Amino acid sequence: MQYAKASQTVFAMYLNVTKDSVSQWERGDKRPAGPAAKLLSIVAARGLSAIA
């Protein structure tokens, strides 16, 4: 899952999740849920600047 050109650490900070969560999403080990899923849909539609 690549929504923005940011490191996993930076992306995790914007979403208020751990870097490990972002890594698991990218590998397909887990799927985002709750507020993180909503924020990811916003980032997918409008870019990272929409939540930054």
Spell out the blueprint of helices and strands.
Elements: H1 8-15, H2 19-27, H3 34-46
Descriptive overview:
This protein is mainly α and 52 residues long. It has one domain (8-50). It contains three helices and no strands. The protein has helices at residues 8-15, 19-27, 34-46. It is globular. It starts with 7 loop residues before the first helix and ends in a 6-residue tail after the last helix.
Which short descriptors sum up this protein?
mainly alpha, 52 residues, 58% helix
Series of secondary-structure elements, N-terminal to C-terminal: HHH
**Helix content percent band:** 55-70%
The largest β sheet comes out as: none
Shape: globular
Terminal Cα span:
19 Å
- By DSSP, the count of extended strands is 0
Figure out the total of helices: 3
The structural class is mainly alpha
Query: Which residue ranges are poorly predicted, with pLDDT under 50 across at least 5 consecutive positions?
Result: none
Radius of gyration: 10 Å
Indicate how many domains the architecture comprises.
Answer: 1
Beta-strand residue fraction: under 5%
Mean pLDDT: 90
